[in-house]
Amino acid sequence: MVDTPTTHIKQPISGEPEPKGWLGLAFILPGFLFILVLFLVPLAMTIWMSFYNWPLLGRKKFIGLANYSELLGDMQLWHSLGFTMLYTVLVTAAIFVVAFPLALLVDRPLRSAGFFRTIFFMPVVIGFGAASTLWMWLLNPDSGVFAQVLRGIGLISSAPRPLESFWPAMAVIILMVVWKTAGFTMVILLTGLQGISNDVIEAAKIDGASVFSRFRRITLPLMRNSLVLALVLNVTSSMLAFDQFFIITQGGPENSTISAVFSIYLASFSSYRLGYGSALSFALLIVLVAISAIQFVLLRERPEEG
Amino acid sequence: MARLELRNVVKSYGIYEAVRGINLDIEDNEFVVFVGPSGCGKSTTLRMIAGLEHITGGDIVIGDQVVNRLGPGKRDIAMVFQNYALYPHMSVRENISFCLEQQKLPKAEIDERISRAAETLHITELLSRRPGQLSGGQRQRVAMGRAIVRNPKVFLFDEPLSNLDAKLRVQMRTEIKRLHQLLPTTTVYVTHDQVEAMTMADRVVVMNGGIIEQAGPPQELYHHPVSQFVAGFIGSPSMNFLTAMLEAEGDGLVVILEDGSRLAVPATRFQEYRAHAGKPVIFGIRPESISSLTQKPGFETIEANVDLVEPLGPETMIYFDIGSVSMCANVDPESDPRPRTKMPLSFNMNRMHLFDPVGGRSLSV
Amino acid sequence: MARLELRNVVKSYGIYEAVRGINLDIEDNEFVVFVGPSGCGKSTTLRMIAGLEHITGGDIVIGDQVVNRLGPGKRDIAMVFQNYALYPHMSVRENISFCLEQQKLPKAEIDERISRAAETLHITELLSRRPGQLSGGQRQRVAMGRAIVRNPKVFLFDEPLSNLDAKLRVQMRTEIKRLHQLLPTTTVYVTHDQVEAMTMADRVVVMNGGIIEQAGPPQELYHHPVSQFVAGFIGSPSMNFLTAMLEAEGDGLVVILEDGSRLAVPATRFQEYRAHAGKPVIFGIRPESISSLTQKPGFETIEANVDLVEPLGPETMIYFDIGSVSMCANVDPESDPRPRTKMPLSFNMNRMHLFDPVGGRSLSV
Amino acid sequence: MTQTKTNTNSRGGQTGYLLFLLVSILFAIFFIMPIVWSLANSFKPAAEALANPAALFSKTFSLENYRRLENVGAGWYVYAANSVMIAIGTVLLTVIVSVPAGYGFSKFKFPGQSILFVLIMATMMIPFQSILTPLFLILKLLGLQNSLVGLVLIYVTFQLPFSVFMMRNAFDAVPKALIEAARIDGASQATILRRIMLPIALPGVATVAMFAFLNSWNEFLAALIFLSDQNKFTLPIMLVNVSSGLYGIIDWGALQAGIAVTMIPCIILFLLLQRYYVRGLTAGAVK
Amino acid sequence: EEITLWVRTSSGAVLQGLAEKYNASHSDKVNVTQITAEQMVPKLGAAVAGGAAPDGAVLDLIYLPTFAANDSLEDISDFVKGLPYSAALSPSHIRLATYDGKVYGVPALPDASIIAYNTDLFKKAGLDPEKAPASLEEIAADAKKIHALDKETYGFYFVANSGSWLIYDFLPHLWAANADVLSDDGRTATVDTPAMRDTIAAYRDMWKEGAIHPTSRSGNGNNAVEAFASGKVGILMTGSYIVNLLTSKYPDVKFAVAPIPGPKGGASSFAGGDTVALIKGISEEKKKVALDFVKFYMEPEQQVYITQESGMPSRTDLAKEAYAKFDPRNLIAYDILAKARTPYTFSSDELFVSRTGPFLNLIQGTIFGDDVDGSIKKAQDDFTKILDRTNP
Ligand SMILES: Nc1ncnc2c1ncn2[C@@H]1O[C@H](COP(=O)(O)OP(=O)(O)OP(=O)(O)O)[C@@H](O)[C@H]1O
Ligand SMILES: Nc1ncnc2c1ncn2[C@@H]1O[C@H](COP(=O)(O)OP(=O)(O)OP(=O)(O)O)[C@@H](O)[C@H]1O
Ligand SMILES: [Mg+2]
Ligand SMILES: [Mg+2]
């Protein structure tokens, strides 16, 4: 047996040999084509267009950095950027203030907790468009629910018109966004909470830590990843807010609630200054990339997992 | 350093009674190991002692104080968890100092205590690392450090070794034991591994279905199990059990196995079992009480069909059937057993056990 | 059913050589166990046999065919993975039939083969369940079923038992062994647990750092390790090692330990070691070769300070120091050792080993 | 392990539970009532809705609002059909493209892979509002402006980063050993993807599909800009058109009906598949 | 032969109806494609640039100069001038459709801005419901009186947060006083005029007194009619369609309409609505069909239909016939159409329509803000800057 000659088979690798890397590339290619044609190319075009005076009708004209220098002096733009930042800070804070208690509330192994989780999450699946129109109705002073309910319980005598001045308008928008998105943040925070091993909490109990000190020294630091993720998602989407301002406040009162994306929309699709709109887009893009970069640095320093 | 007393402690989850009334006195500095199959209530008992679970009934006394209503931070106990439960975001030093900070001890005292504990456990050079950067054994030591730094009255361990690999397990086992000899403290240690229980305990408590089956020093449990459950649980490989009849034969007693083999009970043990003559019994014998052919008093020999042979180096396990039951014997490798051969095997009847087929109580008096 | 031959097989990952030239002939139906420390290249070797990794150099022959360039599906092998790698979304039946479907066997044949395999493994009533609904042992059996149903030429196992708890591990170990006796097939089994290796193998292959240290039947490895590595790896607890001097004394030889103790080498072993007289050596002795005071030829007695005692029931481990080295001995419980007492211990010098301090080769010829 | 988190039989347990219920119900009212009010009002006749919008049950149940919605533009069912087609197209294409891409990223290694991945992920960071204009020009170039197909392509593109990320994580979670087992069983690459990987990654696929559905169903800015023929509008555009009124009058009733038509499919889908949705969301997110 | 017409959605129904009538009686076909109102210009612009344009479009007349200047439209001067009723076409529509002396469009659906006032409230406030306010100052006085009736009742409603509404309702005040914000050729800004300051003063007065409905400030027009119909608004700045709308939808509301007065008197209106234009490069055959369609809807029978559906006929000479069956109040708007104007500019979007445009900022800043002079100056500067950039 030992000396039976063995046959060397000279054949290409058959069966299913270890798959080669290029096969992976082939799998990715269709997706990449989409990104290339409908994202990367338009992105490059945006930059290119920003160097032109590009009206919708008529001839485009290369004007170098003129759009950018105009942008620097565009008060409306700075105002809308400032407003967007303010909104981002406030709405993110508001969402966390609501979502964190919600997460703590539903973080228990009860059937009812699951039920409430579903309810709190429900508005998330409704589109921003539908949600905004829905709230437009709720808020409307003549036939809206809020006016009627508030009047009904005697809180106010005349119909509230929150959209007529800045802070009330901001407040109701934030209320609507919290309603619409707190459930989403809740779920992310919930994952963080559930990722904390019960043992660690119990160890802290045995170490004599009070409820407050357990929360501050154990729970919060261990939820870091979830917190940062929720922060990133909320900040990014708030910086890009558009629908709620377009539909509910329509930028008013006095153009005080025009967000950054809204002003891009206005420049490109209302004033039809495509070149200037592109310059705005590019500027916003840089702001966003900077913010994202900061957040990614935060994300990268992740604590060691036990 | 204190006694620990459980007085008729009960724990129910809804209608399910996880712990059904436990009484136990643990001496100052005693090392008690709770052992038992999964779900028997070991962890629950330990967690009630720690104060992590409310007790449904009974009293727990630490030192001279009934602690039923005291929070876990107030009971002056320390606990080492199965996964160590180290705080992953804190350095080793912070992990150890956390409980001292909660007690608002002065900084200097904290530092001093930490360095003492770290030296004892040889983890001084690990103090600035995070738990994620430690090996299993090192984590284990940090968890111990966190426990000893506060000089607790009672040490509690919940399966602290079950996540380690076999080699490390043996090593950490001796280390825990050594530490206990160095810093004697009342200790309750939970495991489901009977080898750990046997090697570490001053006293082993065998639990089953929420009650204590037997509590006593390891050798007592090994040699005098009060029930078939304890006999089967303690010892590895397990004791072999056969249904049998105990019959009087002349002056003596004989155990008649299913396959008709007759094994004479040594005269020294007549007294013990006489009352049960004529009844069905469970006959139990440990693999190490079965040897290759031995002609000594009290040894009874049968012919076995060897099924499978496992040479372990210093000893060899062989498997054979009696009736429908697979038996295991631990024989000298010199006897060179081979699978699928016949071989005479001798049962050391001085070491046999008889149990009641109903309820499993030991029949020895 | 086929021989399996590894001819100078090499595997590099970049510049790192994980397997550094392995030669091994495995007989038809032989059960070979690869054992070795973590990272020594066991899995890599097994995976090269399976065709899951390309080989960097050498040849692998299954039956009469060099299979280097054949995909894993074409090699006619079956493999059982550490976590079983059962398809979680398929029922047990589908898991087992998957490979047969890939071979496009007729439906009737598939059914027949499945029911035969299921009967062999007693999993007939599990066929319609999903893997998630099975216990660890049952999953293990299904994985075996998936392997045997195709009648492979070679069976490969990669640490199939390491995720099971101790009791189940012992049980499944005998079951695999029994299955091999029932359906003899060339088998390569990888583990890092030397007990598994010793109990299951026809031949044990000890790997270390990408090469084969020693290959041979279990008892040969136990009694005649070719190196300190193998000696330390095989046997539990491990062999004790001490640095020592081998000196000629009159006609005989004597081992002089660090602490000055002198242990005479039995006359029967002069021949073996004479050439090394006057040199430093590593003296090795297994715990089971150290006993309580024994006055037999070839036994040498020293006085030991007992440090720690672990009663295991049938035997008792004691720990003591010689010089700076902690030693372990396995003594009869009857001798009733107590910690922190002095006790005479006898070394069975007939069973001693000597190794070269440089390179660790055994000095016996 | 989480079992021990609550002590239902502890002293504070009962009151704690009641407190939990109370607070939860208060929050639940906040979250659910806007939806309930909207639905309730969509079935009220105009007069009653105006008189008492907060009432949950109207004296008369009326489908009048929905009937009026038929007169909005081409009729709501045309818009609903467009939305359905767009959503289905987006879901299918997203799945077809992102599943292999996720597989490629997860189970293969090739040079340049991480750069490709970053490029795809970057799409998430950049508002597509900011490249609307060039997109518009490119679609025109492709002859796909004012076409549902063009819109689907845009949606798929902006759905891709998340989907690829999800699918990569989903495939990462499939143990390598399973693939190897299948290879030993003689399965081909295609068989492995189809019979082993996909079924196991199914929750991930479901999540991706659901997000694709919801996002394409609800999106309105791109739809507004890229669709011009009113027979091609989607539900959100219809909503915005209804809500921007004509000659200074908003038909609130029709708007409610429109909101209901837009919202209910999303809610039903969510309730049916919420297990996948939430699990997939968190699995993908926290990685 | 078939032609395609793009129509903004707000006019879609009428044009659709006309096309159906036409198709029923002719062998040629007119296909109407409805485009969202806000999308009409970008769509059409892109389509023209991309060579995928329709044959014709029915678009807001204020965009005519832009498209014409851009050489996108087909010259139909001969056709328009050759129409027997060419003199009876809305002058403002023709002016806007004229660029460089050539005419590029025919009015389709004109309308005009007017005011509507609630006669019941007038009576209650002791005002004469038969006599419409003749000047903006009178309006302000009336509005204050009406507001004095009740805290929740307001004297005046205008849509202040929408550029297109503001040019529609606010500019006529200036025109009535013979002022304008743009020069005649549309190339120079003339924001700071006494008429402008007077108008602003009147509005500020009302706002200070709380006589203006609060929604005016932030509203985009969606609630205007509803607010008026609720009987809580005395005077509403609106358009000619209001008569038919109120009589059909809110028959209980008692109201009258009047032209928009200047600050001290006079009257004017904004001529709004749609103009039909043909896209440059249309084939002769199609052009013939398109123009035939224009002739078709100019026929009296169709004019009645148009009046019924959209409030005002395209031909002024048919008013008597067209309005015979309708509320006579319609004639007020019709009469003013001859005096109505429309700003002629090549950048109406940037100047007027845009939410962030200078005109909207001017109104918001001067009427609701504090710094009237600053706002006016800024508007003048911004107008000039934009005109400099966009003048062809
Ligand atoms: N929170 C709980 N709610 C309901 N039943 C519980 C709870 N915690 C434990 N139990 C039940 O109580 C019994 C005892 O559990 P315990 O954890 O004490 O077992 P154990 O002996 O530690 O087992 P193991 O060796 O598996 O850790 C089990 O049947 C378990 O299912
Ligand atoms: N894909 C790879 N790339 C680079 N190095 C690898 C790769 N796979 C394995 N190695 C290295 O090859 C060596 C041998 O690995 P192998 O998995 O064969 O070890 P093993 O003996 O099976 O260990 P264990 O008992 O831990 O399973 C290790 O040092 C490992 O780090
Ligand atoms: Mg336990
Ligand atoms: Mg391995």
UniProtKB/TrEMBL annotation, chain A:
Keyword Secreted: no
Main subcellular localisation: membrane
Highest taxon, organism lineage: Bacteria
Keyword field: Cell membrane, Membrane, Sugar transport, Transmembrane, Transmembrane helix, Transport
Cross-referenced PROSITE patterns: ABC_TM1 (PS50928)
Coiled coil location: none
Entry protein name: Multiple sugar transport system permease protein
SUPFAM superfamilies listed in its UniProt record: MetI-like (SSF161098)
UniProt subcellular location: Cell membrane
Species this protein is from: Rhizobium viscosum
Topology in membrane: Multi-pass membrane protein
Stated family: Belongs to the binding-protein-dependent transport system permease family.
Start and end residues of each ABC transmembrane type-1 domain: 81-295
CDD domains per record: TM_PBP2
The keyword Cytoplasm belongs to this UniProt entry's keyword annotation: no
Transmembrane segments: 21-51, 85-106, 118-138, 166-190, 226-247, 279-299
UniProtKB/TrEMBL annotation, chains B, C:
Gene Ontology MF terms in the entry: ATP binding
Subcellular location: Cell inner membrane
InterPro entries (UniProt xref): AAA+_ATPase (IPR003593), ABC_transporter-like_ATP-bd (IPR003439), ABC_transporter-like_CS (IPR017871), ABC_transpr_MalK-like (IPR015855), ABC_transpr_MalK/UgpC-like (IPR047641), Mo/tungstate-bd_C_term_dom (IPR008995), NA-bd_OB-fold (IPR012340), OB_MalK-like (IPR040582)
Residue ranges occupied by any ABC transporter domain in the UniProt entry: 4-234
Keywords linked to the UniProt accession: ATP-binding, Cell inner membrane, Cell membrane, Membrane, Nucleotide-binding, Sugar transport, Transport
Membrane topology: Peripheral membrane protein
Domain of life: Bacteria
Pfam families for this protein: ABC_tran (PF00005), OB_MalK (PF17912)
SUPFAM superfamilies per the UniProt record, alphabetical: MOP-like (SSF50331), P-loop containing nucleoside triphosphate hydrolases (SSF52540)
Family in the record: Belongs to the ABC transporter superfamily.
Protein name: Multiple sugar transport system ATP-binding protein
Organism annotation: Rhizobium viscosum (Arthrobacter viscosus)
Taxonomic path: Bacteria, Pseudomonadati, Pseudomonadota, Alphaproteobacteria, Hyphomicrobiales
Automatic annotation (TrEMBL), chain D:
PANTHER family: MALTOSE TRANSPORT SYSTEM PERMEASE-RELATED (PTHR32243), MALTOSE_MALTODEXTRIN TRANSPORT SYSTEM PERMEASE PROTEIN MALG (PTHR32243:SF50)
Organism: Rhizobium viscosum (Arthrobacter viscosus)
UniProt subcellular location: Cell membrane
Membrane topology: Multi-pass membrane protein
Name of the protein in question: Maltose/maltodextrin transport system permease protein MalG
CDD domains registered for this protein in UniProt: TM_PBP2
Keyword terms of this UniProt record: Cell membrane, Membrane, Sugar transport, Transmembrane, Transmembrane helix, Transport
Transmembrane segments: 16-37, 76-103, 115-142, 148-171, 192-213, 257-277
Domain ABC transmembrane type-1, chain residue ranges per copy: 80-273
InterPro entries per record: BP-dep_ABC_trans_perm, MetI-like, MetI-like_sf
Pfam family, one: BPD_transp_1
Signal peptide range in chain numbering: none
